[in-house]
Amino acid sequence: MNTPEYTSYAPPPPRWESLKKEIKEAAQTLGIDDIGFTTAEPFLFLKNLLQEHRDKGYDSGFEEPDLDKRTIPALREGEAKSIIAIAVAYPSKMDNPPKSEPGERRGILARSAWGRDYHLVLREALERLEAFIRQRVPDAVMESMVDTGVLVDRAVAERAGIGFSGKNCAVISPKWGSWIYLGEMITNIPFPPDTPVTEGCGTCTKCIDACPTGALVGPGELNAQACISYLTQTKGFLDETYMAKIGNRLYGCDTCQIVCPHNRGKNWNHHEELLPDPEQAKPLLLPILDLSNREFKEKFGSSAAAWRGKKPIQRNAVIALGNFKDASAVPKLSEVLLRDPRPELRGAAAWALGAIGGEAALAAVELALESEQDEEVAGRLGRAKSRLAGPIDP
């Protein structure tokens, strides 16, 4: 009779640990670059921080207003037991980017808006993940969200071990840097949690120092109202002080990520659908001003930059032309100033003409002053005229 060799026996892992391992091994085939697991316990520490942030007036207005929903994971049906966080890496560099030259000035979209709309990319990845789990647990309850969900994506990703929260308010992965899109899935499956990343920013403040508008008011604290990424997505008039700092950005801002040492040398081009179309990611500015709604959707509709419609992009294109101070743009800007029915574009054109300078710009501003009915635009025209009549900025 053979004696069992108990010393070499190892019990099989618990069901959910085994499934978690299976999911991690399959992640790349599902289009997911990194995946982490955490409990569905409330993010208690976060509620007070979010309230303080709101009290200071730092919210963007895009957030879920109910702080309990933002900090207490929940399912519509069943009890939330765990959260799966996912990350998908995206490019930080463009091959052969088109040049911006006099007479053919170009704007730039933030890297998060290069390639196909990341909301769709992540939702499809989460759908594949859901199907993978449902094959193994048919009665599982799962709810996925990308960006527009109620939870704070960064807090979930940090607790699930995807990365740490940087001073620039981005989740920074030790492997991928901060060039990652985030999404999550709440489920009633009690997966064992992963360990959070303990790495951090140390004494580095490069992102805070480089922020064009000072929106990073402290380590991990962002005043969204001053953030260029937020400002480029708003509708309406922009503060003229911020307009000068927007540069040629049409959507978003990458400055705090570009200067981050954790991103040095990191560029991810393995997701073909996220690779940029150079003419979309760095488009000519003047043609943007003539786009119809249909043409705008054809050019930018596949990008995350399209979600607010064409008006903010066109306003930002006017601002960018002013920041380039290219006199060849004066005729088109004068046309916008005198004929465009949208006050925010006329106001931007007034500022841009004031920034460019010259007799033609002054003539357009003076002509517009004779008939402008909007009080805000008229005020901007008056400031532009004063600027144009005085010494021209170098």
From TrEMBL:
InterPro entries: 4Fe4S_Fe-S-bd, 4Fe4S_Fe_S_CS, ARM-like, ARM-type_fold, PBS_lyase_HEAT, QueG, QueG_DUF1730
Pfam families associated with the record: Fer4_16, HEAT_2, QueG_DUF1730
Entry's Gene Ontology molecular function annotations: 4 iron, 4 sulfur cluster binding; epoxyqueuosine reductase activity; metal ion binding
Annotated ranges, domain 4Fe-4S ferredoxin-type: 191-221
Presence of the UniProt keyword rRNA processing in the record: no
Entry-linked NCBIfam families: tRNA epoxyqueuosine(34) reductase QueG
Name of this protein: Epoxyqueuosine reductase
Source species of the chain: Paenibacillus durus ATCC 35681
Lineage per the UniProt record: Bacteria, Bacillati, Bacillota, Bacilli, Bacillales
